[in-house]
Amino acid sequence: MQFTLNGKSKEISGNPAARLIDVLREECLMTGVKEGCGEGECGACTVLIDGEPVCSCIIPAGQVEGADVVTIEGLGGNHPLQELMMNEVGAQCGICTPGMIMAATKLGDAPTLEEVKTALAGNLCRCTGYSAIYRAVMKWKGMPEPENGDKLVILE
Amino acid sequence: MAAVGNSVARKDGIGKATGAARYADDIVFPDMLHGRTIRSTVPRGRIKSIKYDFDTTGFTIVDYRDVPSKNAVDLMSQDQPFLAEKEVRHMAEPIVLLAHENKETLNAANVVIEYEEEEPLFDREKSDLVFKSIDIIKGDVTNAFTRDDIVVVEGTYTTGHQEHVYIEPNGVIAVPEGDGMAIYGSMQCPFYVIKALRCLLGSAHPNVRVIQTETGGGFGGKEEYPSMISGHAVLLALKSGCPVKIVYDREEDMVATTKRHPSRVRHRTAVTRDGHLVAMDVDVLMDGGAYVTLSPTVLSRGCIHAAGPYVCDNIRIQGRTVFTNTPPNGAFRGFGAPQTEFAVEVHMERIAEALGMDSIELRRINALKPGDITATGQTLRDDCSAHMVLDEAVRRTDFVKKREQWKGTNRAIGLSLFYHGAGFTGAGERNLKSRARLELTPTGVRIAVGSTEIGQGTRTMHAQIVTDALGIPYETIEVAQPDTSKVADSGPTVASRTCMVVGKILEDCAHEMKEKLGKLSPAEYYAKNGEMTVERTYEPPDWIQWDDSLYRGDAYATYGWGCDVVELAFDPDTYEVKPIRITAVQEFGRPIHPALARGQIEGGTAQGLGYALLERVVMRNGAMANGQLTNYVIPTTLDMPEVDVVMMENPYPGGPFGAKGLGELPMDGPAPAVVNALRQMGMDVRDIPATPEHLSNCAVA
User: Fold this and answer.
1) Which CATH number fits domain B31-119+165-256: 3.40.50.2000, 3.40.630.10, 3.40.50.300, 3.30.365.10?
2) pLDDT band of A152, cuts 50, 70, 90
3) Is CB count within 10 Å lower at the N or C end of chain B?
4) Which chain B residues are within 8 Å of A98, Cβ to Cβ?
5) Residue B700 pLDDT > 90, yes or no?
6) Mean of the per-residue pLDDT values for chain B?
7) How much is the ipTM here?
8) Residues B171/B352, Cβ–Cβ less than 8 Å
């Protein structure tokens, strides 16, 4: 079968019933696609299929025949959200981060905090409590920290 | 500009955000096999027979007879086998290991095990096999209860299991190298793994090293269990001669590995009518599961924190952790304290209710101050901040006004006051003798410690401390990947000790190195004189006195202090609770890296809210029945309220740049604050998780 992976045409043999995540990780060596649950709950394996964020652990590979698939590797290493996720500590352990970034790429311009939350509702993070992820995403979108958003105060 | 106190660029690099960071499952070795664990399907019994109902060609099969030396995971006790021999004590206990080059073939293999089943013990109250009991006694509790000017308030509080749900499941790879073995894996404590493997392998296999790979979360869940998995991978690798990778899927990870200890805490408290605590009698029971693992120390920390951050002349805390036929419970952020602090904080709310007193006032009357003496007899120093965090949280949230305004509505506000001892308990740090090392490189300095980066910021925070102590640029500091053959044993990455204790040794190393460098920069010194290393051992403050037989003395060198305020909405039709805002006021000495510290508070608060409201482990016949993220629910973006973080500073002189421990503190506060808010609405909640099903059963007071 044939599909586009990170902008390049990809031909793979093998079982079309294989999980897309396994094909991406093991055959295409895109190990930025992470497996957290294997049942489409945690979102760590999120990739874009024709622009839509999808959990690659519950998609049979055959379903992407002819489709455009983008993994975290497809963003290159210079996407502004990647740097912001590190600087704003939206990534702690980092295992949810690639999927989180892929899900966030779907957001339009000038999103509200509620829109960010909804876009990321399918991606679990156990480290951050999500606040720092919102800060990274809002900054990427050129939005100020929401007025009623989290506050940080240091009292010496 | 100083590095400490500023949110400098993290030492992790960009790899976590580009997918380039290598976690255990991302690493492949030539000729690598995949390993699988065959586990018990009964909670208690004897193994009658094992039948391999598949074509075993190409398989490596290991059972207990393949253990070279001792079939015991060497932790606090040596009671837990790597592989069950004749007896099974809990569901999902490892019995047989299989390895094969093809994962599908491996997973299709059918092993049939017959058991002679025995009656399992699930009720912790009925267990008479006690792993550890603790008595903490201050004053004369019995006599104090005979006073005639007191009100007595009693209550029983329970907490459930909690699953860690690090998003990366456990995984290790054992790789034969020469006459030895290298183990790569997701873990918090590589030197624990080494200790366990030495016991497993004995003197015939001395050349073993353990390398921590990028680790996708731990929270205590990767403190002890990686020793078990590493042992399994090593046994398969020894027998096959090939590298063997074992990566758990989510369900195996949830069902088989450790969880937070469920608890039952009973309080009986004597208090004067004007709110002064006279006597606190506390009974703590924790379910240890089928093997000892770390239960004695979890109980210890739980008991030491069981009287809460309050002063009382007469305290008796009796604790037990007992055997049941369930998978062993173990370390989880907070380590016993979230259970006992939940109990005491809800109990304080009930005492205030019984007295008809404002619970803030009750806390103000009794909260610990410098000079006060704790349950173990420790005199608190100036770094005690209970009143400071309480006053700030009440003021900042407009607590009293909101509480009044929301009376009779479906909104409520509640708070909790809590503290958390940093570092190992009592003489623990003195006995541990942690070591840290700095090594000169051609361009700067390398930090070589076994402390692991598991998302909390170890690399960055250690580098900040060394940078400022040495007075050299942050960019010239590198942090070695923990490899037990190359780094100093800085002790386990647990107990909120990685900054306060290991950071302190590094600070001392840096001072010594600075002296040796004289006027030269590290690069100049290296070019002139070659290599230089400085290695030092931790020296706890000399005033720490601890008697382990009496459980008396200075339990911790210092404590972090917190006050959480939860504002929530309640749906009277569905019994759903929606937290609207949580204000976390926490004092932990001084933040080394404010953005990372904030992340610890926000993340720990999220885990605490999950513990309070969502996370219910359903045990059926001794096994977790909801071992999936579909039905074991942790907070998502839509569950999390706004989190306002307030960091207060009150430096601890024994920590690097005044820092105390932080990692666990945020876990202690959310659950009692949530329940205390629910109590404002007249619901008599004393147990968590407070799921809608549970709340519908809570009598309206």
Assistant:
1) 3.30.365.10
2) low
3) N
4) 17-19
5) no
6) 97
7) 0.97
8) no
